[in-house]
TrEMBL record:
Residues noted as binding substrate in the record, renumbered to the chain: T133, I134, D135, R170, M177, G178, H179, E230, R274, H280, F281, Q282, R283
Obligatory cofactor(s): Mg(2+)
Biological process per Gene Ontology, one example term: canonical glycolysis
GO MF, any single term: metal ion binding
Keyword Kinase recorded: yes
Name of the protein in its database record: ATP-dependent 6-phosphofructokinase
PROSITE patterns in UniProt: PHOSPHOFRUCTOKINASE
One Pfam family per UniProt: PFK
Catalytic activity: beta-D-fructose 6-phosphate + ATP = beta-D-fructose 1,6-bisphosphate + ADP + H(+)
Pathway linked to the protein: Carbohydrate degradation; glycolysis; D-glyceraldehyde 3-phosphate and glycerone phosphate from D-glucose: step 3/4
EC number: 2.7.1.11
GO-annotated cellular components: 6-phosphofructokinase complex
Subunit structure and binding partners: Homodimer or homotetramer.
Gene assigned in the entry: pfkA
């Protein structure tokens, strides 16, 4: 009997259930009655505190299009808090892994999740990871599931903002998620026809941004749209040491960087400006068809690795194929947007301003 534990960890995204379904259906097909799947509740928390349950084939039906995660999720910052209330989280996870008698733990998550997955693999557990996140910032894979669905939503927001922006002749900032990287903003910004795209990888100079807004106004454009990454930062901030940057941000009298940019623009120009923050909308609802397919491919690839007893890998998309990448190569690395990537060069060819 193969015993497989499965959990989803970190921020949720579209495609988690599709991926869970992919793993489970492929396992049942491979091992029929000779497999037991344990659903571990709320991410690594469930493994730490022993919240898990036996699941059965019908549990994995009808969930392909379902948003969120049927297993629940949570964030667990291990580095700072390995031991809490005398509970050593890692030791507890090892204990519960053994208690279930697992052959393999399948984790669906982003950067933090894979860091922990690698830690557990180094502790001797059999672990396989699946790359999920709307941020697309996981090293080792060209694409994470969730990204395309979130891009659809962020693009739709920019599309809709266009009609109100043009009616009123306003400047609009649409703040896009993405944590510390600009993939989502770059793609949604290009797809939505934003005039200015600000991403963390290209620190912005407010003078360049205002100059572009003025230029558009003089050219007779009634409105301008800025796609701003939630992690965008100014040239001045980019020059700061990490600690000073953190302290400055803690003092920032705005709910997010977009509001500060709006104020910076208002301070030196007459542009009428509004800010829209779609926030967690970008992670909600049903996965788009691309993500359904990608999640399914990742899920079945994970089942294949289990069949071959090949553990300690994250399944990844590279040049159109699904390949295993060692967890040790993925853990702790962020995939940022290369500033000279084709997408940025193409956007620049179109005259899109990056604020530099
Ligand atoms: O990692 C996905 C993500 O949505 C980021 O884009 C965002 O910065 C973060 O999660 C928000 O986290 P939370 O859901 O914990 O507020």
């Amino acid at each position: 009997m193969r015993k497989i534990g499965i959990l989803t960890s970190g921020g949720d995204c579209q495609g988690l259930n599709a991926a869970i379904r992919g793993v489970a259906k492929a396992l049942y097909r491979e091992f029929s009655d000779n497999v037991m799947i344990y659903g571990i509740q709320d991410g690594y928390s469930g493994l730490i505190y022993g919240n898990y349950k036996e699941m059965h084939e019908p549990d994995f039906s009808g969930i392909l299009t379902l948003g969120g995660t049927i297993l629940g999720t949570s964030r667990q910052p291990f580095k700072l808090m390995r031991v809490v209330d005398d509970i050593d989280k890692v030791e507890n996870m090892k204990k519960n892994y053994k208690k279930m008698g697992l052959d393999c733990l399948v984790v669906l998550g982003g950067n933090g999740t894979h860091k922990t997955a690698n830690l557990l693999a180094e502790e001797g557990l059999h672990v396989i990871g699946l790359p999920k996140t709307i941020d697309n910032d996981l090293w080792g894979t060209d694409m994470t599931f969730g990204f395309q669905s979130a891009m659809d939503i962020a693009t739709d927001v920019i599309d809709r903002i266009h009609t109100t922006a043009t009616s009123h002749g306003r400047v609009f900032i649409v703040e896009v998620m993405g944590h510390k990287v600009g993939w989502l903003t770059l793609y949604a910004g290009i797809a939505g026809g934003a005039d200015v795209i600000l991403i963390p990888e290209i620190p912005y100079d407010i003078k360049s941004v205002v100059a572009e807004l003025d230029r558009r106004e003089k050219a007779g454009k009634r409105f301008s749209i800025l796609a701003v990454a939630e992690g965008a930062l100014s040239v001045e901030e980019a020059g700061m040491k990490k600690k000073a940057f953190k302290a400055a941000r803690a003092q920032m009298p705005y709910p997010s960087v977009s509001y500060r940019i709006a104020d910076e623009i208002s301070a030196v120009s007459e542009h009428e400006i509004r800010v829209t923050v779609p926030g967690h909308f970008q992670r909600g609802g049903s996965p788009c068809p691309y993500d359904r397919v990608l999640s399914t491919r990742f899920g079945t690839a994970a089942a294949q690795l289990i069949k071959k007893e090949k553990y300690g890998y994250m399944v990844a998309l590279q040049n159109g194929s699904i390949v295993p990448v060692p967890l040790g190569e993925v853990a702790g690395k962020l995939k940022t947007v290369p500033v000279d990537c084709e997408e940025i060069l193409s956007a620049r060819e179109m005259g899109i301003c990056f604020g530099d």
